[in-house]
Amino acid sequence: MNFKNQSFSKSLSNALRGIKVSIGSERNLKIQLTIMILLTVLGLILKFSPMEWGIIALTSAIVISTEMINTAIEITVDMVCQENFNTFARNAKDVAAGAVLIVSIASVIVGAIIILPKIINLIK
User: Fold this and answer.
1) What distances in angstroms separate CA 63 from CA 49, 52, 66, 82, one per listed residue?
2) Does the residue 4 lie in any domain?
3) Res 2 pLDDT > 70
4) 74: Cβ contacts below 8 Å, ≥ 6 apart
5) Residue 26 per-residue DSSP state
6) What is the pLDDT of residues 13-27, one digit of tens each?
7) Domain membership flag for residue 35
């Protein structure tokens, strides 16, 4: 199969299928999407500024994308190694998971910087 010469609509269809596969198979992605939805509701309640919406949207996209890249790495490593333990395969999967963790922690920090002052102002 020649993947390079696909039409734009076929490439888009494949990308959407990849998103569907990720959401259907990854518990962490479901959790991250749920948090993103809750954050959107909170943003509406707290009246995020356009800049804050942009930062939240970009941060959320980075977390979701990194999780999907991690999933792709895990699927590929599992396919290649199947049932055979391999230290390199384990390291590849752990490094990818570590990248998701770093991005997730950074997104929590960004969210706290935006949300906490607004909640403190509501309490005052």
Assistant:
1) 21, 16, 5, 27
2) no
3) no
4) 93, 96
5) -
6) 999 999 999 999 889
7) yes
Count of residues making up the chain: 124
Rg (CA), the chain: 18
CA separation for the pair 111, 39 (Å, rounded) = 9
pLDDT in tens, 34-55: 999 999 999 999 999 999 999 9
Q: How crowded is the C-beta side of 21, counted as CA atoms within 13 Å?
A: 11
Q: Give the chain's domain count.
A: 1
CATH code for position 14: 1.10.287.3610
Question: Which tokens go with 115?
Answer: 């949300």
- Could you tell me the CA-to-CA distances from 41 to 36, 45, 124 in Å, in that order? 9, 6, 22
